[in-house]
Task: structure prediction
Amino acid sequence: LPALSLSLSPSLPLSASGSEMWDDRRWGLFKRNLQPTLTLWSAFCSFGLCVAFLGPTLLDLRCQTHSSLRQITWVFFAQNFCVLLGTIIGGAFKKTFSCSLGALLVSTLLISAVFSIIPFCNNVIILAFVLAVAGLAMGCIDTIANLQLVRIYQKDSPVFLQVLHFCVGFGAFLSPMIADPFLSETNCIQNNLTVNGTFSDLTHIRKSMFPHRVVNETQFVLPTDGLVISQVSYAFWIMALINLPVPIAVLFLMCKQGFGGCCGKKNVPLLPAEELPPDLQMDRLSPGQEKTLRAKEPDGIIDCLKGLHLQEAPCTFFVVHIIGAVVLFMTDGILGEYSGFVYTYAVEKSLYIEPRVAGYLSSLFWASITLGRLASIPLSGKLKPATMVFINLGGIIGTFVLMLCFPVSIVCLYVGTGLLGFFLSSTFPSMLAYTEDILNYQGCATTVLVTGAGVGEFALQMLVGSVIQSPETDIFLVCGLTFGCLALLFYLVLLLAHRLHNHHRMADPSKTGTIEESKFSYQS
Result:
């Protein structure tokens, strides 16, 4: 033991020095990419604004469009489905950074335009169309921001991805706060029925609605004809103004990059190899190699797959893409179904919590997600992405087991909701960074994973919504535990695939990239 102690002690200063050098490297990259990084983060705040505004304002929008509860909840479906389509479409704009900025400019402008137009939508079909356009813009922002941030920072991307997803939580926290002062406290359609006071608790109705149907719709008595009295339009106009600086910031960055010659500048790469400091030039490519590599960059998923010489790729290459997407399919599905149905579970099942008290569960869930993403920023600099994903999946399973062990405990439900949000918060960015690292940033991982997460959030929310009213009181928690266990199982398969993929890559680096790229991956 003394000999072992002496042999290890000289390595401690080296470890500290290596950590300090890595921090300097990351800080140097951030300073050189300050403007594009801040622009991508602000775009994700726009994404967050759109994520959370619809739920609180839906009843006022029902009054505005003179529609029933069942009709108005279909706007959820329109937005969520088009978010999924947008994530796929966003991959078509990744050939160059300027092309991505153009799509980002259009998307962020569309979000401000949608916020401005919503108050004038007096028909539920028109409103659904407008929100579908917003969903497409949200999906494009989701794919482009994740993809470009990974492309900029690559091996150093986990910390910056955590900040990116914290911005979503911040935007999702901000939009309900803006809307709250303008929400109707009574039924916003006034007629003889509402004058006599026969209307339901609006807070309970807001919390009970989810994308494709309303729980126990017959118990809600809400008129569709009468005088509309609502001030929610001001909330949308305020959000439109708050979001307006984002497309302006994207436009400034486009001019700096010389997009399409709009400012008379040549379009240059974001981080030219010649401008990197000596400690960052160890594995840089020559200008000729950079030009060749840039010319081969794909436009979308199909072109991405065509450009990868799939006939030469090992089977582990495909397994990593598929299994990574399946893991996020499960974890983002848990996020979607839990946030959508935790209120319904609390008030309809064996707990029978008072509606106003149960309403805090959704707020607690999103607050813990935002707090978890904030805490993950320093943690991602200390822990590897693979370790963080494993801890998160274990925490998700443990939380559901805890809530199932005490199914009638209100305190346990609140504690479990907070823990679940915390463990889910950093799963997506950590998983994205880990999968891209396995593939040496050469595959289509970002596009595939973002699409898989979007499909999971949409599909599992629909699945749980179809069984939430079954006689089994704990079916909601059982579904979450099942999805969590499946996510952990597939993640263990991914760890095995990573090991096999590395073995194959080191044995024959020519099939997954150049020798220089394999050397860079090995040294990192």
Summary: The CA atoms of residues 327 and 490 lie 6 Å apart. The chain has a mean pLDDT of 75. The domain at 35-189+226-259 is CATH 1.20.1250.20 (Growth Hormone; Chain: A;).
